[in-house]
Amino acid sequence: MTAIAYILAGLIGAAIIVIGARFLIAPGAAAAGYGVQSDVVDRSVLAYMRVKGVRDIASGLIVLILMAAGAPHLLGWVLLAATIIPIADLAIVLGAGGPKSIAWGVHGLTAVVMLVAAGLLLMS
Hints:
The chain is mainly α and 124 residues long. It has one domain (2-123). 85% of the residues lie in helices and 0% in strands.
């Protein structure tokens, strides 16, 4: 069970790093993938996207560092706490009138995978 949880956690960590990098490199495409349209010409909007990108990269690195440290129980608690992020993302996309398919299919599914991984890690 721990091996499956570690694989899920590793995929989550790596994916959020890639998503963060995408917000730095291709912010318009990243915003659309998130489920919202944005005006990347507006410097203020672009600044917020960069903030999101850097914070996503840091979040992914935290997961990978906990994995490398061999701290499955702590990793489980961190993933459980961090599940609020995709749940909030889901609510944000729905509240902004974004695509329900992205809200539930991306953010909702991410929350479920994180809860499963956290549960497996906490049971180990």
